[in-house]
Amino acid sequence: MNADEAKRVIADFRARFPDPRTIRLYDLRPDQDVFVRCPCGRVVQYQYGVLQKKHRLPSDMLVYDLRYRLRCECGKWRGLGVEITGAANAGGNPTERIEVAPLEK
Ligand SMILES: [Zn+2]
């Protein structure tokens, strides 16, 4: 995605979801990934569609609620942070970062 296109999709998405807690899985764009961080330090990346297909989560689920539905390998399910990244540049680095749920330490 070139820089102008990235700016446009980022601004559009922000305008649609001024409160990131209202974003649902079906709202995500194919270029967006979900990152779940645990207070233990582990980070898991879920690419587009994986949470529905592999983890059988409903598409209308709030991304925010992943903090209650997922569990880290360490056994923790409290305090998980949830972030959406997207609009990667030519180098593959995301230029969009949306904190949906804060990591609690
Ligand atoms: Zn953990």
Structure report:
- The chain has 105 residues and is of the alpha+beta class.
- It has one domain (3-101).
- It is built from three helices and four strands.
- Strands 2-1-3-4 form a four-stranded antiparallel sheet.
- It is globular.
- The model has no long low-confidence stretch (mean pLDDT 95).
- The protein binds zinc ion (ZN).
- The site of zinc ion (ZN) has 6 residues, from loops.
Secondary structure topology:
Layout: H1 3-16, E1 33-37, E2 43-46, H2 50-53, H3 66-69, E3 81-88, E4 94-101
Antiparallel strand pairs: 1-2, 1-3, 3-4
The chain binds zinc ion.
Q: How far do the termini sit from each other?
A: 34 Å
Taking all Cα atoms into account, the compactness measure Rg is 14 Å
- How helical, in percent, are the residues? 10-25%
- By secondary-structure content and strand pairing, the structural class works out as alpha+beta
Number of helices: 3
Shape: globular
Helices and strands, in order, run as HEEHHEE
Strand order of the largest sheet: 2-1-3-4
Number of domains: 1
* Biggest sheet record: 4 strands, antiparallel
Could you list the spans in which at least 5 consecutive residues all have pLDDT below 50? Answer: none
Percent strand equals: 15-25%
The molecules bound to the chains, other than polymers, are:
zinc ion
Tell how many strands the DSSP assignment holds. 4
Mean pLDDT: 95
Structure keywords:
105 residues, 4 strands, binds zinc ion
Nutshell version of this structure?
This protein has helices spanning 3-16, 50-53, 66-69, and strands spanning 33-37, 43-46, 81-88, 94-101.
